[in-house]
């Protein structure tokens, strides 16, 4: 087999994996069952290709046929979910620090990591207030808006910033603003906003860092803007920085290093 043939086979394999992941990504919390027609319309795949990929995913337990050309998440995903949950479980000291932060500030706290051009919540602790911010573990969001994103992009080179900017309505025009965010977080050590992404929602974010001071994750505190006045904000900043020191030292993964690849 010549080199060009091997490269072609490898590219085809990667393409198939990408398409399979594209299919699985169409399932969400709001839509746990999807039809073959919806998959075809949303992925743009040829019907024969789609049927083949769906059958493969079904064979491996990643999809489950529920009748009428409809599919739900398969039982095989339960194993992956269990492994991910175990791996990303906060170490005891970090969990205690997160709970102490919520007890002190009386607002919801969460830990986020960068995953490509998105951010993903890997841990959270809810406020006990009736009116509170609720973020589920596994929830993802953009890296081009909000304090959490600003913290996570602090150390990124321009190549990575450009990939994130490409996801925004502004395209490359977003880059100057993102560079400004980087400078602000480096200078202040935190990011804060009031009503930026959602009306009446305030968020404070600080970096979690490795032993060299590089950003590995973001710790956030969020709640109604009415509870984030100047006096409380200073108290919240003190509390979240204290928690960040503990979590940075203890890590935010029970298994492995606290600096997972963001690719």
UniProtKB/TrEMBL annotation:
A Pfam family assignment: HTH_IclR
SMART domains: HTH_ICLR (SM00346)
Keyword tags: DNA-binding, Transcription, Transcription regulation
Entry's Gene Ontology BP terms: negative regulation of DNA-templated transcription
Every IclR-ED domain range: 76-253
UniProt entry tagged with the keyword Cell cycle: no
Entry superkingdom: Bacteria
Record GO terms (molecular function): DNA binding; DNA-binding transcription factor activity
Record's protein name: IclR family transcriptional regulator
Domain HTH iclR-type: 14-75
């Amino acid at each position: 087999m010549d080199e060009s043939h091997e490269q072609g086979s490898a590219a085809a394999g990667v393409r198939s994996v990408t398409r399979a992941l594209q299919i699985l990504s169409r399932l969400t919390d709001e839509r746990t069952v999807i039809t073959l027609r919806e998959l075809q319309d949303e992925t743009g795949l040829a019907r024969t290709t789609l049927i083949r990929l769906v059958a493969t995913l079904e064979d491996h337990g990643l999809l489950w046929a529920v009748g009428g050309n409809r599919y739900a998440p398969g039982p095989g995903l339960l194993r992956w979910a269990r492994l991910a949950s175990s791996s990303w479980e906060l170490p005891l000291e970090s969990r205690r620090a997160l709970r102490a932060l919520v007890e002190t500030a009386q607002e919801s706290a969460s830990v986020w990591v960068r995953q490509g051009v998105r951010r993903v919540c890997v841990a959270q602790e809810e406020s006990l207030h009736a009116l509170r911010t609720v973020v589920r573990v596994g929830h993802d969001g953009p890296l081009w808006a909000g304090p959490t994103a600003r913290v996570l992009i602090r150390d990124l080179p321009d190549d990575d910033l450009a990939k994130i900017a490409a996801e925004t309505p502004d395209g490359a025009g977003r880059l100057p603003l993102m560079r400004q965010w980087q400078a602000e977080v480096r200078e202040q050590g935190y990011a804060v906003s009031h009503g930026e992404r959602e009306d009446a929602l305030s968020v404070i974010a600080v970096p979690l860092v490795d032993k060299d001071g590089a950003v590995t994750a973001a710790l956030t505190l969020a709640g109604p803007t009415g509870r984030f006045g100047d006096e409380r904000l200073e108290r919240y900043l003190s509390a979240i920085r204290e928690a960040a020191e503990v979590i940075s030292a203890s890590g935010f993964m029970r298994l492995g290093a606290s600096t997972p690849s963001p690719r």
